[in-house]
Amino acid sequence: MVLWNRNFDTAPVDQFLALAFRKTEDLYPPVSIVRSASMEQDQAIAALLDGNSLDIMSAASSVVHDEQFITLRFPILKGLLGHRLCLIRSGEQSFFDQIRTAYDFVEAKLTICQGLHWPDTAVLQRNGLPVVTSSEYQELFVMLQDGRCDCFLRGAQEIGPELQAHQPLLTLEENLVIRYSQPGVIYVRKDKPELATRLELGLLRALEDGSYEALFERLLGESLAQLHMDKRYQILLNNPAQSSVLRDINGIRDFDFQP
Question: Which domain holds residue 41?
């Protein structure tokens, strides 16, 4: 089973899927999870569509993609993708100290970096935030370092490893969290319904017996605590383009991450 390479690197999606597979070995044979070749998000979406080099990926929910694939109604990392924090240039915290609203971002002429094809980009733009884009993930870090933007907005589950990789040039903004409905979902190829059924069953079993929560705490508990999410000013945004899958997930409050 081939999983998008980014789902190994920036957040431990692979380990949650491995847990789901283990929880269903009474009904299905063991499965090995293999890292895909390096791909940008739009390339991974294309690979999942053609079915030749990718079987599964986790990404932000979008109306288009939720219909193109089998979409699990299970937010793989408790909706952390919609709890977003800024990577900023070291020494520039003072530019953000007075920011409390999206309007403050605009007034301060602070610009956000995001991926060209990411659903998050459209959410930010529709809420009036200034966004500059690149189709290449690594280029976004370069853009921030070079001053072509002021904040690279990242999900709470992924910002820790990225910060570690780019210090001391970049640092974590201290005061803000931008929140909107964006749980992050699992996409499975349309021609693999049994795989989707198995994963959803395994995740629900893990949720029921406590092993999902235990794994979440072991892998992410300490790094999330270091972000001090409960002490940050929340800038709440509207996600106006929600699929039926996303609306279903939003109705299951037990899945929400609570700082």
Answer: 2-79+183-225+241-253
